[in-house]
């Protein structure tokens, strides 16, 4: 299905061409119908093959998950190692601060970090590929334990010159005032994006959305370049350049919560707990 020929398929999976042909013939014999028709040296999938393919693809993905979990269980966790996952917004200011605090007390522990989107973090923890993860949204999954670490407010990062000095000095901005400014919106599937969409709907105001982004730091970078107002949580706003933007609290207050996630199948190790305490301290530092 992917390559269009037996020879290319053989090269792709590093087996002989006759082996692929025999496997294909056996599959068609077992199924009782053709999967491919040969046309001009190429294999064209039949209607039956096209109907089967999405289901076969899902099975391969599930098999890959099983293999990944098996490999993780076999390897175990090396002593003196910690695998940490964070959403992108926590990887710029919070994670480095936590890492510095952690290194002061646990210099011998090697930390492996990866910044991912929340669904990827959940999947990786369920497969036990990491020890602990940190996200903004609460997660309901039977294989994961979670703990609330801290709350942060949604803030507005406004390019210099868009607001009068009196309002900047006041330090707050309402949704009604925000509706008069160009806004960089967040993806509708993002937890913060959903929260903001509900707040805007409940307030009865509309926003002048000039574009939509998936990550908070992209929104912040665009605000730095004067494209529009970025609506982000406080952790991202900690990276704002005061020479280029003003940071104002959004009214009414919209809280976001940082959560720790870990696999239930693994014990909550001392190093995991220690790193979580460092994350909490780092969150307090930028509060």
Short characterization:
44% of the residues lie in helices and 26% in strands. It contains 11 helices and 12 strands.
Describe it for me?
The chain has helices at 6-13, 17-31, 47-75, 94-105, 118-126, 165-170, 175-178, 191-203, 216-224, 234-237, 270-285, and strands spanning 36-39, 42-45, 81-86, 110-115, 132-135, 144-159, 172-174, 182-186, 208-213, 229-233, 245-251, 255-263. Helix 1 crosses helix 2 and helix 4 (94-105) packs across helix 11. It starts with 5 loop residues before the first helix and ends with a helix. The strands form 2 sheets. Strands 3, 4, 5, 6, 7, 8, 9, 10, 11 and 12 form a 10-stranded mixed β-sheet that branches. Strands 1-2 form a two-stranded antiparallel sheet. It has 11 helices and 12 strands. It folds into 3 domains: 6-75, Arc Repressor Mutant, subunit A; 81-150 and 257-285, Periplasmic binding protein-like II (D-Maltodextrin-Binding Protein, domain 2), CATH 3.40.190.10; 152-256, Periplasmic binding protein-like II (D-Maltodextrin-Binding Protein, domain 2, 3-Layer(aba) Sandwich). The chain is α/β, with parallel strands linked by helices and 287 residues long.
């Amino acid at each position: 299905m992917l390559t269009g020929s037996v020879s290319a398929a053989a090269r792709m999976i590093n087996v002989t061409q006759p082996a692929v042909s025999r496997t294909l013939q056996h599959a068609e014999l077992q199924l009782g119908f053709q999967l491919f028709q040969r046309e001009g040296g190429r294999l064209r999938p039949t209607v039956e093959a096209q109907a089967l393919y999405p289901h076969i693809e899902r099975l391969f993905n599930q098999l890959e998950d099983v293999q990944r979990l098996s490999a993780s269980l076999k390897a175990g966790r090396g002593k003196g190692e910690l695998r940490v996952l964070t959403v992108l917004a926590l990887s710029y200011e919070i994670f480095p601060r936590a890492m510095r605090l952690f290194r002061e007390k646990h210099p011998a522990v090697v930390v492996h970090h990866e910044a991912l989107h929340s669904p990827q973090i959940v999947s990786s923890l369920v497969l036990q590929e990491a020890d602990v993860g940190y996200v903004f949204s609460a997660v309901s999954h039977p294989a994961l334990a979670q703990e609330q670490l801290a709350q942060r407010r949604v803030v507005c990062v406004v390019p210099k010159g868009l607001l009068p000095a009196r309002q900047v000095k006041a330090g707050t901005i309402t949704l009604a005032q925000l509706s008069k400014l160009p806004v960089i919106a967040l993806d509708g599937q993002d937890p913060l994006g959903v929260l903001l969409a509900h707040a805007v709907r409940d307030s009865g105001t509309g926003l002048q959305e000039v574009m939509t982004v998936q990550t908070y730091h992209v929104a912040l970078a665009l605000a730095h370049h004067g494209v529009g107002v970025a609506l982000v949580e406080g952790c991202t706003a900690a990276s704002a350049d005061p020479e280029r933007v003003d940071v104002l609290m959004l009214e009414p207050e919209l809280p976001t919560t940082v959560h720790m996630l870990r696999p239930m199948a693994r014990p909550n190790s001392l190093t995991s707990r220690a790193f979580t305490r460092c994350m909490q301290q780092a969150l307090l530092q930028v509060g």
